[in-house]
Amino acid sequence: MNRNLLQVESLELYREDHLIFSDISFQIESGDHLVIRGQNGSGKTSLIRTICGLTQADKGKVLWNEASIDESLFNYYEQLSYLGHKNGLIPELTLDENLNYGLDQTDKDGKDQVINGFRLTDLKHSLIQNLSNGESRKTALSRVVSSKKPLWVLDEPYANLDSDSISYLNNCIGDHINTGGIVITSTNRDDSIATKTTELLIGS
User: Fold this and answer.
1) Residue 21 is part of a domain; what is its CATH number?
2) Closest C-alpha among 189, 185, 161 to residue 48
3) If I label 90, which of 17, 26, 97, 176 is the partner at 20 to 30 A Cα–Cα?
């Protein structure tokens, strides 16, 4: 992977007249894992969405390789794999169809290995609407892990995961940053994160 740089400069966000967060700044680059911590309602998801260009900040900016994402959003999304609170899956399609729909052809080569890692192989042809919350979450994570995108942004990725799946996800995160990827993870748990380079506490 090429060396990449993500810069967040003095972000501030209001919802109506309520301040969600202010003066958020950090810089991370290839090989870094930023963990955003905070209790429910602290603004983690709003910050994640702002970093991903899905919410517009009232002040500040986000830069990818020194270019504002507002000016090059398409290029930024070419480099970004995002998992939000919602899994973004189509209930009427199978697990395999959802992954094929969401991945580029080059990403599909390692898909089966990831499905097996999350112990989903026997469910490949099951409809998403028939899966448990944990199985659906692992399907959505499989799409991120299978992608060749350098930047992974994961909002509460450990929700509904069993211990084996948490271990596998942490191994995937470790492999990604060790090969020059960048990971941003939000969580309010202390027992799940295996690796981190930087920690950001919000809402305290």
Assistant:
1) 3.40.50.300
2) 185
3) 176
Asked if 128 and 140 touch (Cβ cutoff 8 Å), the reply is: no
Q: pLDDT tens digits for 131-168?
A: 999 999 999 999 999 998 999 999 999 989 999 999 99
Domain extent, residue 46, equals 5-90+148-201
Vertex 68, ends 67 and 73: CA angle to 5°?
Answer: 100
Q: Indicate whether this model's pTM tops 0.90.
A: yes
Question: Tell me, what amino acid is at 147?
Answer: S
Looking up tokens 């290029």 gives 75
The two beta strands, 18-29 and 67-68, are: unpaired
> Does the residue 135 lie in any domain?
no
Tell me the two tokens of residue 106.
């080059």
